[in-house]
Amino acid sequence: MRRIGDAPLIRRLLIGTALVLSALFLLLPLVAIFAQAFSQGVMVFWANVSNTFTLHAIGLTLVIALLTIPVCLVFGVALAWLVTRFSFPGRRILQTLIDIPFAVSPRCGWPDLPAALWPQRLDRLVAGRL
């Protein structure tokens, strides 16, 4: 039984379409970011990048990344090994907890969490509109 993607021409078209769409989703935001960054000229961009606060923020980001990547690597490999090799009570719950960040976008889900959980009065108090 032949599938739709078995023909060489169809397979190349599907792969090409996937590559073009992936490139667009990756490159268009980068182009927009650089266009906005350089919209007022290179000198304004360089003045903002060479600002003391910006340099400290970049340094802090690099330090935190260098500290967290090895920790995530060790715990990620350990959890993957644990979940795939052993059967234990709570395994399905652990798998669910591991999958939640992939299923819920942090940009969509987390900002709405306080609005869903907090009473309206407390929300206004925190926002300074009470």
TrEMBL record:
Entry keyword set: Hydrolase, Membrane, Metal-binding, Metalloprotease, Protease, Signal, Transmembrane, Transmembrane helix, Transport, Zinc, Zymogen
Keyword Signal assigned: yes
Transmembrane segments: 12-38, 58-83
Localization of this protein: Membrane
InterPro entries: MetI-like_sf, Pept_M10A_Zn_BS, Sulph_transpt2
Origin: domain of life: Bacteria
Location, primary (coarse class): membrane
Membrane topology: Multi-pass membrane protein
Required co-factors: Zn(2+)
Matches recorded under PROSITE patterns: CYSTEINE_SWITCH
Protein name as annotated: Uncharacterized protein
Source organism of the structure: Vreelandella olivaria
Organism ancestry: Bacteria, Pseudomonadati, Pseudomonadota, Gammaproteobacteria, Oceanospirillales
